[in-house]
Structures are given as structure tokens and as C-alpha cells.
Prior knowledge:
Elements: E1 2-8, E2 14-21, E3 36-43, E4 49-51, E5 58-59, H1 61-67, E6 81-87, E7 98-105, H2 113-143, H3 146-171, H4 182-193, E8 203-210, H5 213-220, H6 222-239, E9 245-250, E10 253-259, H7 263-277, E11 290-296, H8 303-319, E12 325-327
Parallel strand pairs: 11-12
Antiparallel strand pairs: 1-4, 1-7, 2-3, 2-6, 3-5, 8-10, 8-11, 9-10
Amino acid sequence: MSFDMSYEGPGDHTVRLSLRNFEPDMSTLDDYMSQKVNETHFVVPAKGIVKIPMKVLRTAPWWTDMRHVPVFHTDMRIDNVTTFDLSVGARDTEGRHRVELRSLKFHGKLVSQNRLLLVLVGTWIGCALVWLDLALRHSRSQLSNSTTRLALLSKVNEALELETRELAGQAYTDPLTQVLNREGLRAALMEKWQHPDASAEQFAVVFVDIDHFKKVNDTHGHSVGDEVLCAFAAAIQRGIRASDKLARWGGEEFLIICPGTKAADAHLLAEKLREALSYQIWPHGLRVTASFGVTALQPGEVIGDAIKRADSALYRAKSNGMNCVRVA
């Protein structure tokens, strides 16, 4: 280390440099004096830079005597230094002393030469092993027989089929709420209507809209709004049957398709869901309610007409003060 400093005044201008090192096997946090004291003395010239090699530091004998340190713990260590002290002022010479410390610098390598060589050799060995592993894999691949290649192709095909199914599932799922989107609902209904007796089955449609959702986004931000949408979809999903289909229709609107359900039963379901929302714990302590529009699919009617009728019922629920159910 080097000091750019000057010392003016009577005496020999001696300065004591001390570095306290915290060593877990002998130092404690509640005893400052338990830290090992490594020190040296040097004389400051009138002007100029003083260079002090770190190797001249020695563990202070007064500290080892005071702490009764065993001889095998008296080595100089500066691997965990906590304080750096400069003690100035001639103890035996009275008078006016003026000390100016302009800079303090540490010099040396962050990585020792031995450690650098060790890292380089380790890296070289690692690269050699990787190259050897790649060469062996390549040779093994070249020597594999046709049966092995066919098995590999079969596994690849299985993986591709799985990925295709996953992608298809993503195309049918709303990425935020993880319920069906419009395409997913359309696919579910098409699969349902492929059965011969599906056209005669009773269907109920429930249209749901979160009340004052725009206020949530405007007041708390869209991230909180997304949390509310996810919690709302999860609450509705828990309250319906496994055979029912829940889809995010758009924004804060959701659609529930209930097979084998009459309008009266769908009305009871909507009331149960509306009441359950009041017991739901919402993000940031919000109070969230919803309005419901309910209808039933009429004989010979297409599902689109029922959805429009449920939407009209939802509009009436919104117009009548929200947080209610209306049946068309």
C-alpha cells in the first residue's frame, strides 16, 4: 500500500499502521479487541509518498500477550480486515503536530499467479473432457444400428405429438386466467354436439361481468386488475360442476355453459356464485362483485342466440344496480 501524506512537527514523525482482522475461531462480534491486530511502524518524510509492503505487517506482540494467543495463531492474516488505523503524533515530544493524508492506495493482483494458473489448467482440462465427451457421443451416434435409430425417431415423434397437444391446449386457453378462451369454448361445444343426443339436451348459459372493473385498473393499475381477473376466474371455476365450461369472453366478461341444466337451476347457480364472491379474499383488500345474465337454450335454437339473450339479461342486471342476477 502507499500513502501520499506529510507530517510537520517536533519528534521523529513515526506513524503506526494497524489492520484488525476478524478470525471466526478467535474473534467475536461483541468484543472489538478480539480481532487480530497486524501492525508496523514507519517514518513519514516531510513530503512525498510512502510505500509499505504488506509482508512487513506483523501480529502485534502486545495483542498476543493481552489475549494469551497460542503461538500457532500468531501468524499475520489480512483476509478479513474490518478496520484500518493510522496512529500519529510523537508520544514523547510535545508541541504542534500537523498531519495531512492526501491519498491511500492498495496495489497488487486480485488473483494470485498460482490461482490464475490453477484456473487456466482446470479450464483446459474441462474443455478437453467436454471435447472428448462430444467426440464419444458423435462416434456412438455414427455406430448406432438401424433399430436404435428407429427407436429414436419413435421417441421424437412422441415428443412432437405431445408438443402439438400442448400447443393446441395453449390455443384454446386464456393465457392470464387459464380458463377457456372463445376458441376453446367453440371446440368444447363442437365436441359436445358431435354426440347424437346432444341436440335434445337442455343447456343453460350464464353471462358474468365484473362490476366496476375499469375503476380497479384506473385506481390500482393493470397488474392488480390482472390479479383480480385470475382470482375471479378461480372462484367461479371452484363453484361450478366439472361438466360445466367456463370461458373468458373478453376483458372482464366470462361465459358459463351448463349442460343438462334448466334456466331455474342456472339461476340458483348464479346466485350461489354471486354470494360466494363476497366471501372471497381479493388482492389489496378490494371488494369485488359481479352481475349475472341467465338463460336456457330453446329447442331448435343455436347457441349464439342463447348467448345474445344472456347478454341482454346481463345488461339488465347492470342497469338495475349491479351485483344481481337477471334471467331471460
